[in-house]
Design goal:
alpha/beta; Rossmann fold; 2 domains; about 10% strand
């Protein structure tokens, strides 16, 4: 019986992933670097400790790069790109449906808490989440299962009783390693990935109702509702 849904944040709820890629790509072009989406994809859903695209850019640049200046330029470009951006299609519909049917709702993000909470509050969706875990709460972030294991414990559900929604390979690996089902909803940066091992794939949460997704993931199980 499915009792809980757990959401990633960056790239899934709000598509910050594409905005970061576009900002780094635009700034790196001034240094003669064509930042391919496949290269950038190595850091999606994880952290720059796993793969820092700036290291790659510095290595391939046609002139020296001041890292601090590059980051300032990328941050400024990111802010411009994010102006007017909202939740990804279907996100609020899924949260509303999950709450209406009595599912427990968690969030597991490799980003820091200040970052995540600021966006949840900005879009007035913080109240949907019983549990929010971020990089501040675990020693190892995705693709390690720690974030999902902690979220499952705090929601008081087993992995087989939860469906995770992710947009990245690192996130999917983490969710599956924790024993949860995982449905991927790629964004523009991750849509080229195959996601072998996922329990389902959507182009957008708006394309299929939540209950139908959960039923397709665990057909022999029912969705617990109140």
């Amino acid at each position: 019986m499915i009792k809980a849904v757990i959401f990633d944040f960056d790239g899934l709820i709000v598509d910050t992933e594409t905005a970061w890629y576009e900002s780094y790509k635009q700034v790196s072009a001034a240094y003669g670097v064509d930042l391919k989406i496949e290269v950038w994809g190595q850091c999606v859903g994880a952290s720059f400790e796993h793969f820092d695209p700036l290291d790659y850019i510095v290595e391939h640049a046609n002139r020296p790069i001041d890292r601090d200046e590059f980051k300032r330029e990328a941050d400024a470009q990111f802010a411009i790109i994010m102006e007017g951006k909202g939740l990804r299609p279907g996100v609020e519909m899924y949260l509303t449906e999950a709450k209406r049917t009595g599912l427990r709702i968690g969030l597991a993000s490799s980003s820091n808490r200040v970052w995540v909470e600021s966006y949840l509050n900005k879009f007035n969706i913080r109240s949907y989440f019983e549990v929010v875990n971020t990089s501040d709460d675990v020693e190892r972030i995705k693709p390690a299962p720690d974030l999902y294991e902690k979220t499952l414990r705090e929601l008081d559900v087993k992995g087989t009783e939860a469906v995770a929604f992710e947009d990245s390979m690192h996130g999917m690996i983490a969710a599956k390693a924790a024993g949860a089902y995982c449905v991927v909803v790629p964004n523009n940066v991750t849509s080229h990935m195959e996601f072998t091992g996922s329990d389902g794939r959507l182009d957008s949460m708006a394309e299929k109702e939540l209950n139908a997704v959960l039923a397709s993931v665990a057909p022999s199980s029912q969705v617990e509702s109140v």
